[in-house]
Amino acid sequence: MSATRRQVLGSAGAVGVGIVFAGAVSELFAGTGPAHAAGRGGYGPLVPDPDGLLDLPKGFRYRVLSREGDPMRSGEGPVPSNHDGMVALAGPGAGPVRLVRNHENRPDGGTYRVPAVEGLTYDPEGRGGCTVLTLDRDGEVVDERVGIAGTAVNCAGGPTPWGTWLTCEETEDKAGTAGYTRDHGFVFEVDVRPGRRTVPEPLTALGRFQHEAVAVDPRTGIVYETEDAFDHPFGLFYRFLPDRPRGGFGSLRAGGRLEALRVPDVPDLSAVREPGTRFDRVEWVPVPDPSARETPVRLQDFGRRGVTHAQKLEGCYWGGHRGEGAVYFVSSYARGSEGSAADHFGQVWRYEPRRRRLTLVVIFGPDTGVEMPGESPDNICPAPGGGLMVCEDGGGAQHVYGVDRDGGVHPVARNARNIGTVEEPEYGEFAGVTFAPDGRTLYVNCYTPGTTFAVTGPWRHRSAVTPTGDGR
After folding, report:
1. CB count in 10 Å sphere of residue 195
2. Structure confidence by residue, pLDDT tens digits, 180-237
3. What is the DSSP letter of 417?
4. CA-to-CA distance for 358 and 281, rounded, in angstroms?
5. CATH number of the domain where residue 451 is located
6. What is the domain range of residue 213?
7. What is the pLDDT of residues 339-358, one digit of tens each?
8. Where are the coiled-coil regions (predicted)?
9. Structurally, how many domains does the chain consist of?
10. Residue 187's CB: how many other CB atoms inside 10 A?
């Protein structure tokens, strides 16, 4: 399916949308809950917010749950800066929802660091980490505290089937660099369940590289990982085969085997231009040195046939597909001028583990007439009952978009603070888009100044839904 720039710009409420894409979009959408994607045209035009924060369609409302600099309810310090990846985890039974939120604080960035808390701090010189918001049945914040501290550049991550959060460091800095006392570039497991406590130790077997996001196969426990590298040679798509596949908190510390994707005769995924292109029986190559003691993983010697690279591998999630599970991952953009084989504004790929099949599902641009990376998809998540939510990462006005089953692109939210600007790309970037377990509330972050929103409204619902696939 495809949409022209004229068609997209002519859709209700799509003023400023520059996305043009093609692909078998319906392939993405296997329902996992009661809400479902809007039909063509979405939810209607975005209505200017009189408070100048968040423009939404008519009938939708937002609440600000948290702002950087405000005191956390725990008394541990101010809310940290640079809100990034996030997940909404269900409490036991019908218990409270817990939002686990990353803070992508670099050594020299972010006004407010994640406070160092005894027993939760990996490296006292690391400014990043996670915070945890506990919401009551009415969606009000009743607690806000540190989940893990002393990590660095916590970008995205992903939930586990056993109810924890894997937070990813998007850096390769070693001890002695930028003042750090320990090596960075790892994945950490954050446990927010009552009576549990996070162990601030890296999951070293999952590799040390510029992690972005992860997704876990609930049947096998295999962890899929993206590497966000914008410079050549670009990042890799990985899988980690755990020694303790049954899972549970701490199981990933038992070790396992890290492998990188190889698509025969395709050294760079950006070269694939036709949606629906399918590669059967792709290969997985053992990573020589997952800890990258001397050489970054993507630069290591994988043998004569090599591995497959891609620029800016970012969002990643597990979803259902025709009754079987699949992992979806995003290449945010590719630029030939920076070493990619071809240009695009974003790709969404699907990998089906049982078939060892890789398919290009969606490709964005670049024939929109808008300079990259204006429409680059970044954080991405499935809507609970079918549909896709995409956080835009570029200059100018910033949006959360919905992509529906018919291939329509519609704006769901717009940062009202930076409409019409082109020089504040970091201010209004959205991140961490995720739905509540019941599908009735969308949570999303504004990166900086860090703000967490809860969006409610007339999300379309089905009277009776049988979940398909494995969900997330």
Report:
1. 5
2. 999 999 999 999 987 788 999 999 999 999 999 999 999 999 999 999 998 889 999 9
3. G
4. 8
5. 2.120.10.30
6. 5-456
7. 999 999 889 899 999 999 99
8. none
9. 1
10. 24
